[in-house]
UniProtKB/TrEMBL annotation:
This is NAD(P)H-binding protein. PANTHER family: PRESTALK A DIFFERENTIATION PROTEIN A (PTHR43162:SF1), PTHR43162. SUPFAM superfamilies: NAD(P)-binding Rossmann-fold domains (SSF51735). Residues 7-114 form the NAD(P)-binding domain. It comes from Terrimonas ginsenosidimutans.
Length: 292
């Protein structure tokens, strides 16, 4: 089979491509960086260099593929993030229609069932709506949990202050995911026959924020690392002080509020809180310690 993947050689894109190549498929990887062409070739794939906001380029890259893995880059431009994400989704949808590809696996997110109040996830809600309108195209929405890798951003605070924290309480349950588990689910969905539109949650583990801090703290030699709940104002200030642009900091604060109020995981819980990923928090803690 022939697959076209977006996401370049990122944390999800690279292991996904490697699995598909190993299974004997022809894989084209879209990248905006021409310098990655050699690395893409080294894993047995073909590079297509261009922008994911260019519908004509995307249509050419999708043409002839049996299926496409659609991943919209996060934080496009650093400002007007939701609108930029949505516009990129429009380019994808236009390219899918023009190319005639009949199967798409989209990397989405927990909370993408909600149109607002979810921070950056709102852009993925908009894209899901666009893909739902694609006639004759089978689409699997992979709604991923909160990436383990995001907690690397907490390393400076752990080193300096000996805490972890956000604007939700220690008892908040967090559906978490490792990119390798997303890659495994995407590979499975791309290779199987499917029709219509469906949602598949990809979650590796569920832990409270308190359990998260304790596990990661122990891994880096800080026993009983506390979870500090902040107000929205305190969290926003901490993010901006850490150097995040004001708009992005505001979106992350809104997302934290969505977890605090239980809105973001509500549909996931309604579906039975399925956990299928293999990489548990204890496994990721070893990766986290290596970065510490």
């Amino acid at each position: 089979m022939k697959f076209t993947l977006t996401g370049s050689l990122g944390n999800t894109g690279k292991p996904l491509a490697e699995q598909l190549v190993k299974a004997g498929h022809a894989v084209t990887i879209i990248t905006s960086d021409e310098a990655k062409t050699a690395a893409i070739g080294a894993i047995g794939a073909t590079a297509a260099v261009g922008s994911v906001t260019d519908a004509i380029f995307l249509a050419n890259a999708f043409t002839g593929a049996d299926a496409v893995f659609a991943m919209t880059p996060p934080n496009l431009g650093g400002s007007n993030i939701i609108s930029n994400t949505t516009e990129a989704g429009k380019s994808f949808a236009e390219a899918i229609k023009k190319s005639g590809v009949k199967k798409v696996v989209m990397l989405s997110s927990i909370g993408a069932d909600l149109p607002s109040g979810t921070g950056p996830i709102a852009g993925l809600y908009n894209i899901e709506q666009l893909y739902n309108q694609l006639d004759g195209v089978a689409v699997t929405f992979l709604r991923a949990g909160y990436f383990y890798l995001n907690f690397y951003n907490d390393l400076p605070v752990i080193r300096a202050l000996g805490i972890m924290g956000a604007n939700y309480p220690a008892a908040t349950n967090l559906p978490l995911v490792h990119p390798s588990d997303i890659a495994a689910a995407a590979a499975e969905e791309l290779q199987q026959v499917s029709a219509g539109k469906k949602i598949r949650y990809v979650i590796s583990d569920i832990k409270t924020a308190e359990q998260l801090a304790a596990t990661l703290g122990k891994a880096v030699g800080k026993e009983n690392l506390p979870w500090a709940e902040m107000t929205d104002e305190q969290f926003l200030g901490a993010l901006t002080q850490a150097g995040l642009p004001a708009e992005l900091a505001g979106l992350y604060t809104e997302m934290g509020k969505g977890f605090r109020e239980g809105r973001i995981p509500a549909h996931f819980i309604k579906e039975g809180s399925p956990v299928e990923g293999k990489i548990k928090l204890a496994d990721f803690a070893r990766e986290f310690a290596a970065k510490y």
